[in-house]
Amino acid sequence: MKLIYQKLLSLLLLLPFSAIAEWGLNMTQGVTPISKEIYDMHMLTLWVVTIIGVLVFGVMFWSIFHHRKSKGAKAAKFSHSTTVEIIWTIVPTIIIISLAVPATGLLIRMDDTSEAKITIKATGIQWKWKYDYLDEDITLYSSLDAKSQEVAQRDSGQNPMEHENYLLDVDEPLVVPVNTKLRILTTAEDVIHAWWVPELGWKRDAIPGFINDNWAIIEEPGTYRGNCTEICGKGHGYMPIVVKAVSMEEYEAWVDDRKALKLAALESQNKTLTMDESMAEGEKVYKKQCLMCHQANGEGVPGAFPALAGSEIALKKENTLEHLYRIIYGKNLMPKFGDQLTDLEIAAVTTYERNAWGNNTGDLIQPKEVAEARKNQTK
Question: Does residue 239 share a domain with residue 292?
Fold first, then answer.
């Protein structure tokens, strides 16, 4: 028992210096019309219940104090009062109806996705987000940023609290224009996820086989962060959401840049890589896509994620095609990257995995080999 008290005391002494979440005393007001309406509705309800609480408890405490036995108060002998019962039925009913009417109107407005100017489909994937801009034929994959992945590694020696936006930043934010009605569809490829950015005022489950939707008009430029809020597996805490709201001119310039990048990616499929080029590009792809499971040293996580360093699939020449298939189409817990990576990126990361951490096979995979693997394998 003495040891337990000592531990409790030490925790209390350390509490002021420990890492704690940001304190908040109220809801997030948000940057969209709906989020502000929700906040106003919340404040109205809060004041109503606060006034009711003050009145009820005030009368109760006054009655207890002034009708105590020590003052000679005698208990009244009655069973009920019809008038009081009618009052305490009618008054709460009026209060509830007066709150329900504006709340119902707000719920109806929250579901009105009509007249949206831009439609984006957000798809949850273990463990990242895929965004399809349906009006622009643009697709991007938003993954945890490289610095957070580096800090999160076992024995990284880095203090997460010293990294700004640790586990709250991504490599590809969702870019949208301000003062424009956005319709955001949510779904998932594998398990149930949930898309939530507090400043937008709502969250939606992302369920495989279903499409949920909501809308937002972001009124203030800025970067707004959120998370997947449905426990979705080992990497649940590693799939943040970042929305970057910019002016319409900046958004249109960004769209043009994305389309140019898409065209450049298509043209790169015919490129022949040198070993140095492939290893440099492969390392970038590996750190972005593979690091969390297979670790920086390629040794994986025993019992969960297999090692690549010294593995048969990476060392044996006859397993080269299987190596490509596994990256393109996935296997078991290994997700498929065929839709996420270009032929050049898959060729580079395969080359990297077959030559890093002492594997040193000398194998150099070219984009055309990846293209051929896609044709030969049907899934």
Answer: no
pLDDT band at 20 (very low <50, low <70, confident <90, very high): very low
pLDDT digits (tens, 9 = 90+) for 72-104: 888 878 778 888 899 989 999 999 999 999 999
275 with 233, same domain? Answer: no
CB 283 within 8 A of CB 150: no
Residue 344 falls inside a structural domain: yes
Backbone angles phi, psi at 272, to 5 degrees: -105, 125
In the block, tokens 């995995």 appear at: 353
HSE-CB at 133 with a 13 A cutoff on CA atoms is 21
Per the structure, how many domains does the chain have?
3
Laid out side by side, the sheet with 138-142 consists of 138-142, 128-133, 118-125, 181-188, 212-217
For residue 175, tell me if it sits in a domain: yes
- Which stretches of 296-341 are assigned E, i.e. beta strand? none
pLDDT in tens, 302-336: 877 888 988 888 888 888 888 988 888 888 778 88
CATH number for the domain spanning 227: value is: 2.60.40.420
206 in Cβ contact with 187 (< 8 Å): yes
d(CA 334, CA 349) in angstroms, rounded, equals: 15
How many angstroms separate the CA atoms of 8 and 10, rounded?
5
Indicate the Cα dihedral angle 352, 142, 374, 365, nearest 10°: -10
57, 92, 110 - which closes a domain: 110
Q: How would residue 379 be classed by pLDDT, with cut points 50, 70 and 90?
A: very low
pTM for the whole structure: 0.77
